[in-house]
Amino acid sequence: MSLAPRDVRTHIATSDTTSITVRGYDLVNELMGKYSFTEVLYLLIKDRLPSREEARVLDACLVTLMEHGWTPTSLITRLAHDSAPGQVQIAIAAGLLAVGDVFAGTMEGCGRLLEGAAASSDPAAFLRQTVEAHRAAKKPMPGFGHPFHKPDDPRPPRLFRVAEECGLANRFVPLLKDLSAELDRQAGRHLTINATGAIAALLLEIGIPPVIMRGIAVVSRSGGLAGHIVEEEETRAARQIWRMAEEGIPYEPPPGAPKR
User: Fold this and answer.
1) pTM (2 decimals)?
2) In angstroms, rounded to a whole number, what is the distance separating the alpha carbons of residues 66 and 69?
3) Distances from the Cα of 48 to the Cαs of 24, 34, 41, 54, in angstroms?
4) Topology of 50-245 in CATH?
5) In this predicted structure, what is the pLDDT of residue 198?
6) What's the whole-number average pLDDT of the chain?
7) Confidence of residue 209 (pLDDT cuts 50, 70, 90)
């Protein structure tokens, strides 16, 4: 059964024998060596080049999530690289699969909450009800809390400062701070805004929608994982991690197992 033809077009890129065109720009003569990776990434997402201030904010977000030491993403990448040496793409792709609702990818959920508050006729009531709903369901608030950085994550204040210096902390950054205050009030204790929460607000300030925010995290963390692969080639830490797991997690027969 043949499908009816559809009028599908792309505005992203095309090429011929002598040129490559990206979002209407000649890649070789208009982009390469003239604009940064960050600026062209923004161009691909938004169909326009960013202002200097927008590029600085996006670049700060990319740098923030690039590296965080021994995390599921870096551990998985090192183990995968040890299992498939020479296949760098496999190791990086494997590590990136851990970017999600727990690690490095929660900016999407936070961004959607902030969008909802901004669209509401009563943002304060929206934030109050959002916190109430999450607490009633015992769901963590995306963009808040950190297992190591307590009482506060050191990264958000710097991100807010960058946005303020660029004149791009006018709508969503204040909403995030209001959400933080409401969460603390209802929880009866302080919960830090984490890096992904701050990044969600900054990306919204420069027009990047929640649907692609996790993609920004993937782009960022890819750079960090490249560094882990280079170091893994030198240290072979994956084998030691394997041994540590075997030594540190002993086997115990399951309840009801036959006694021998």
Assistant:
1) 0.91
2) 10
3) 10, 15, 10, 11
4) Cytochrome p450-Terp; domain 2 (1.10.230)
5) 97
6) 93
7) very high
Residue 6 has pLDDT above 90, yes or no: no
* Minimum mean pLDDT range among 10-14, 61-65, 140-144: 140-144
All residues at 6 or more sequence positions from 87 whose CB lies less than 8 Å from its CB, including other chains: 81
| N-term to C-term CA, the chain | 62
In our burial notation (b when 16+ CB lie closer than 10 A, e otherwise), range 117-141 reads beeeeebeebbbebbeebeeeeeeb
pLDDT mean over 59-83: 94
Q: Is the pLDDT of residue 255 over 90?
A: no
Sketch the domain layout of the chain as residue ranges.
50-245
